[in-house]
Amino acid sequence: MTKIKDTENIVLLGIFLGVIGAVAALILAYFAQLTKEPIEKMKMQATNNALKEVLPAFDNSPSTDKITVKSADDAKIDVIFFGAMKDGKLVGVAGQSITLKGYSGKVKAMVGIEPDGKIRTVAVLPDKKEKISAVLITEQSETPGLGTVVCDRKRQKTIFSIFKPEGPEAKILPPNPILDQYAGKTAGKDPWKVIKDGGQLKYITGATISSRAVADVIYRITNTYKVNKKEIIAKLSGKAAAAK
Amino acid sequence: MSLVKDFTKGLWKENPVLVLLLGMCPTLAVTSNAKNGLGMGLATTFVLLGSNIVISFIRNIVPKKIRIPVYIVVIACFVTVVQMLMDAYAPPALNAALGIFIPLIVVNCIVLGRAEAFASKNNPIRSAFDGLGMGTGFTLALVLLGGTREFLASGSLFEIKVITPWSVDFLLPTQAPGAFIILGCFLAAMNWLNQRNAIKRGEVYIPPQGLDCRHCSLCDLNNNEE
Amino acid sequence: MSEEVKSELLMPKGDELVLSTSPHIHATEDVRSIMLKVLIALTPVICAGIILFGNAAALIMAYCVVFCVAAEAIWLKLAGKSLSTLKDLSAIVTGILLAMNLSAGAPWWLCLIGSVLAIWLAKQIFGGLGHNPFNPAAVARVGLLIALPKYMTTWIPTRFMNYTTADYCQNLFTKTDWQNVVMGKIDAVTCATPLGVVGTTTKVLTHNPEAVNNFAQVANPSCYWQYFLGNMGGCLGETSALALLIGGLILIAFKLIKWQVPVFYLGSVAIITGVIHFFLPGVTPPPLFHLLTGGLMIGAIFMATDMVTSPMTTMGAAIFGVGLGIVTCTIRIWGNYPEGVSFAIVFMNALVPLIDKFVIKRPFGYNKPIVEEGVAA
Question: Which of C248, C235, C253, C220 lies closest to C341 in space, CA to CA?
């Protein structure tokens, strides 16, 4: 019998490869089992981190208390709403959606929409209170240096900040003039437009398309919220209550 | 003694990035900052170490005819494990930056190259040291490249601003062309240093032999000519 | 082996190169005189830039020239080369060309970075003038565009574009901007380039009247005369087609450039955009618009024709020009950037050695060597 190392027997070779594959599959199955839960947790944490930026303080897990609604202007696009609860009350809603009008592909945004904190029953939220509290772009592939200026909120760490304790500015969302101008706005009848197209919104020279895309996705979320408000609030409060 | 040599040759003399020029895809693509370089380097080191040891153990029973598919299965297995571990425990930002490049470690030339050139011919302990050395060299080169690119772009290192007045990002080094330009500068510097050291010692500078395409026996190209 | 055979057959043997006794005709042409002629050809463009953009333009040119010469001097010093090559004026020409590719609103440090990119990265690292595969000014523009896109795409209006003049300016900036300047709300008005406007206009793929008028706001006959004179947003040197054409004629008169490069370049751009505009008018404006706007003229006349980085043969120059046209149109119509001239020049520069090899001239009386079996493949 020749050594297995020099064998040319095709059946033997096949069996060998099969065994190696089976062993590899077993190892992978074991690891998949092992990491299943941490991966889920990690994914949830990533969503929660983004939600923390746009929502007021909450004590539930908004990434699970969510509902998906069809966009008011385009049935092909979904808008996901997350509810933030504090002491059993709905204190904020975050909407997440995409637009395909970016300069290179889709732009994904997360918008925090705040109900007035003083109102006890969220169901009677007046229209004027559905303001945007904060906007966060979570995914984009715009031109570096132009489109990204519209989308980025960068938390700048410096060499000095390592040595001194983090000030209060580390907690709040880093500013972005383009995204911050949406704060306090309420969706109207017509889509928002940048100044260049005859609207009111500021935009970055050289990144008109990215600015338009951002306006588009933020309007989509707020408008969808406005159209489906009752349903969203009822479902989100119900879901959180059921979880309790 | 020889174990030390197995480890240290990967750091400088046969550095996978700066001398062997292997694994250029992750080298150029992920090193836009130092953190990504470090993450990619550590992931590759883990795969290299694991695959080198396993392949060295099975080197005497793997049929010659199917050794490459077997090596690839072993490497792919380790890479998938790394990917799952990163999904589970790595910071989300790092995971997002490295995401598509982790699966590419499977076809990273360094891993298969070390498996074929070293692990399949040496015992597991030496192979482990070889993998560790090569991985460390790869990591060092990636961190160096990533750090340089990040620093030239925004004056920061590991996402921490070192030169605080630097406010306008200079994006060239973080983009693809910058990767090529800076890697080119590193290679030139490396060759210049080696040459200078050789002259200092009074030797004639010979570029590393047996590693370039003409001397490597990996694909047996030369046999056809001679 | 085959290389040796070839060179043996192509090159005359030593004793065949007989040098007759004097008198010889002395060719007065050297690098310095060529660069001087290029500078003369650049004069109309420089004047146009200063007339259109005022003192800011002159200042930027001065910065670029000083920084380029300084960068060259520093490199020569560090590399231990003789400083005498500074006298060949090539750094000054590079500086002027670089300035021509910057916006009039460029800060001084942009000029500095551009000069370093042009002189060190594009020229000296390859061994200095004559060894550079890429046009230094084009490399600098591409590098700056990638590195600092905000500064390279912020244009200021010419001195002749203001609140009261030409209606067509309305498409490049808004009247309210000027009111805001007067009221002190904003510091200055930025101005879009016609190509930038086209780039942000949504493409219409149909053939209805809406498509025909898709670009009418920037591409109508009343605009073209202004574009020809240079009255639009853009880099210092690229706006005035008139000045550039005069410069081009001077270059051709001095026999410094092959006319094939600009002619085939401009021609292929005109034909490609013409065909696309004919079938899909909502996708790209007419060819005349493409010829008059952006960096096409300066690229075709001054940058693509650089002696070092363009092909040696006339046939090669024609291929080079057509290639430039194809790449430029591709980037302009489908690319991420509104303008593609500098990218096209750098890209085609890389192919010049191949083009030269492809169209190599057969010397007179040269017979194809009979290849012996087994000697060469």
Answer: C235
